[in-house]
Amino acid sequence: MADIPSLEIGNSRDFGEVRAEVVRLVRAIRPGHEMGYIDHAFSLAETASQGLLLGYSSLLTPYHDHGHMLEVVLCSVRLLHGLHLSGEVIDDLTIDACIVGALLHDTGYLMNNDEVSGTGAQFTITHVVRGAVFAETQLVDILPPDLMSATSKVILATDHRPVAVMPEFNSRAQRIAAQVTATADLIGQMANREYLERLLLLYYEFNEAGITVFKDVHDLLEKTGSFYKMMNGRIQRELGNLTPHLTKHFDQTRGVRRNYYVESIDRNLGYLASLVKEERQRRLDRLKRGGIVGKALDLLETP
Q1: Dihedral, CA atoms, 224, 180, 260, 160, nearest 10 degrees?
Q2: Which residues contact 36 (CB under 8 A, 6 or more apart)?
Q3: Strands (E), 143-299
Q4: Between 245-254 and 66-85, two packed helices, what is the crossing angle to 10 degrees?
Q5: Taking the domains of the chain in order of start, what are their residue ranges?
Q6: Most buried residue, 148, 175, 227, 297, by CB count within 10 Å?
Q7: Which residues of 69-106 are buried (b: 16+ CB within 10 A; e: fewer)?
């Protein structure tokens, strides 16, 4: 049987499946943890992404879709579990802020009913702040003030632009929750089995947002290796170098001392390195997963 690390991560797009895994791992960390805030955030995220939240359309961005949301949530709870197994004290505030923040971190792409054009990708530059505002608007009467503040800071910490500044943290719980979710936001997507194909969808979002740093799809592919090096520096320094703790999670849950996220990223980047050596007209033929390339090209050709 082929050894495919990304399959061990899973590519879940199912709210119920991810929710069940979150409950299981939170119980492993803190058996008595009250799940009410997390349950409410799951319901809010699912309702909003499906277009069932009053005043909002569904989540339309092709790259930052509900699948990305869930892969970040899943990676976040696994990181929390790994930290717990490493001896870190993970308290209730850390758990709630981390998971609620992960669920809502990209809600800034949601369009309200007055925003009738585009997919929401036009808000790429401001989506993190919009997401924090969305969370505060929807949850201010649900979450206690300390959790609301921590959740907002978790969302703000997922702004990975070089010009972005990490929020100021008032407690260790806030800092850990933010570092975990921001780390998961990066490695969760880059470990996805379809990450390379999905880069074409990301280019579409950049194009809609008027971000011209990439000349075309191929320029994005060619610069992704450098992007990872820059983000890996952020992961190791500003975000506390938490990725190795995933090994403890998989050792305890699967009985193997492996870090499937790091392995998957390495495989994706290795394939990408060989891909960009190809002539441009041959590259997309090597990106076959999920029928994503065809969908992306159709989007890019649509006026």
Answers
A1: 0
A2: none
A3: none
A4: 90
A5: 10-301
A6: 175
A7: bbbbbbbbbbbbbbbbbeebebbbbbbbbbbbbbbbbb
Long-range contacts of 133-137 (CB under 8 A, 24+ apart): 133/108, 134/104, 134/107, 134/108, 134/110, 135/100, 135/101, 135/104, 135/107
pLDDT in tens, 61-117: 999 999 999 999 999 999 999 999 999 999 999 999 999 999 999 999 999 999 989
119 within 8 A of 62, measured Cβ to Cβ: yes
CA 74/CA 85 separation, integer angstroms: 17
| Contact of 213 with 186, CB cutoff 8 Å | no
Sequence letter at residue 110: L
Phi-psi map region of 51: left, alpha, beta (phi>0 left; psi -120 to 50 alpha): left
Phi/psi at 182 (nearest 5 deg)? Answer: -65, -40
Question: Quick one: DSSP state of residue 78?
Answer: H
Which class for 68: exposed (0-12), middle (13-18), buried (19 or more C-beta within 10 A)? buried
pLDDT at position 10: 84
Residue 285 identity (one-letter amino acid): D
Residue range 189-215, pLDDT digits in tens: 999 999 999 999 999 999 999 999 999
Question: Is 10-301 a domain of CATH 3.40.50?
Answer: no
What is the structure's pLDDT at 12?
81
Structure letter (DSSP) for residue 253: H
What parts of the chain have a pLDDT lower than 50? Answer: none
Alpha carbons within 13 A on the beta-carbon side of 187: 33
CB 300 within 8 A of CB 207: yes
CA distances (Å), 293 to each of 97, 170, 198, 296, in order? 35, 44, 8, 5
